[in-house]
Amino acid sequence: MPGHLCNEINNQKFTYNVMRNIPELNGNWKETKGRLKQRFAILTDNDLLLIEGKEDELLGRLEKKLGKTKDELHKIIADI
Question: The whole model's pTM is what?
Fold first, then answer.
């Protein structure tokens, strides 16, 4: 498999795994949200509003507010 294709597949798997885990964060979202607010002081509760089925909206708000890519945000959330 060419290198860039392999990286693309790995990124897709990583993105899928993190997005699949975002609904699982609902149970611990208060804790995760608190950690994100500690790490990024500019975030507000409205920025971090997580509505089931609308995880992409959450990531879009964070992308815009933090100037991070979705891949970077997936990694940040996965690391928390």
Answer: 0.64
